[in-house]
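Below is how a single chain appears once it has passed through the pipeline. First comes the sequence as given, then the structure the pipeline wrote out for it. We keep one example in the README because the format questions we get most often are answered faster by looking than by reading.
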Amino acid sequence: LSLPPDSPAVLRIAASSRTCLGFRCPLREACFAQKVLKDAQGWSVVVANYHLFFSYILGSGNPFPVSYDLLICDEAHKIPDAARSSMTVTASRDDLVRLLRSRIFLSDDSSSSVRATNEERSAVAAEIRQEAVRFYELLEVKCPQAKAAFTSRNEELWHQQQVVSEKIRTLLDMVAPETDGEDEEEDGAIAVWTEELQRARTALEWCASVGQYPEWAYWKDGASLSSAPVVSSAEASQCLQSGAAEKAFFVSATLTLGGTWDYWMRESGIRPTAFFIGGSSFDLEAQMEIVVVDTGLSVTDTEYDGTVCRVVEKLTEANGGRTLVLASSHRLLKKLGETFRRKRRSYAVLVQGDLPRTELLEFFRKDETSVLIGSASFREGVDVPGGGLTQVIIDRIPFPHPGDPMVQARTTLEGQAAFCRSTLPEAKMVLKQAAGRLIR
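Resulting structure:
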């Protein structure tokens, strides 16, 4: 469906692992997802993505639902980030408000098996919403930046979190069934709702505590707080070894840096027993040219964005379009979009955010002279063979911002060695992936 991820329609038609009723669902026999999992038990080949794989094992603590004898991990350089993503804890204002606006815990169908009336539960839910608003308003006062790291607990935020948490506990006690184990199907929706509300409560407490810094990074991002492990190697390797696979293969074009596997092995926690480096099937020296443009400006200079826009425009015009532009920031992305749309071009200009990613890529592949302007998410997964993409422009080496919460936490954890151990090799790997969009 051509819907943005935050569309309200998605919430109405899609179930997540958090909202699925599981064995309590009265429609479980007709569930297409359960049918696929059941059918997959007899398949010879099962294809899944990292997010699904790690979400089962790290996210829910369950084994992967399909057994396998052989494990092949493509794009294996993504393993550390995928594991980290599955372990990320987020406390979102919008998620909490959505839960408290639900009619599930206020419905007449549930009134016979709970300890409080609709009016009583509704009043407590309103109090939680009010205190949650105060928490996120206080968060905005204490941290007005759109995104910023937390390195220690803020006592005022912690106190307000405790107020919210205690009221959530009160509501959960009110909704708890009076019977134990009876009418599971009837109370399934309430059970899932209470589990999700409890997770939201736990997430808010975890994120507000900043209790495991610097092993975990903590940050504000808009109206939410998040936390993720700085290093996920132990969990990633444990997951990949948790199945009954007799052999595992890890494949990627960017597993080595300078001919060594050290960085990837350290970040993934994987220790292979055999290694193989294959040569490229392309004659890179004959097929591509690397041009470095020295603007003489630092990325922090006020003239940087404008200068980069002029350089990119000139190079793209000279190439007749057919260009993928990878911007290092959303600020520059917006500026580039404005620059290219000031006048009519002989080629179409596609900008990240205009359409869902899959549709942008489809247009880009079909129109051989088009130009696609994107950010970090377009450094990988863009496959345009032939003459439709003859130029890739990267405005700078993709070092993470020094203020990035993960970078800050890792520097605190490992000291100055963090730059050479993780920041520099990661930038090299990302740059290789970005440049690889050209030769397909």
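The radius of gyration is 25 Å.

See the next section for the split statistics.
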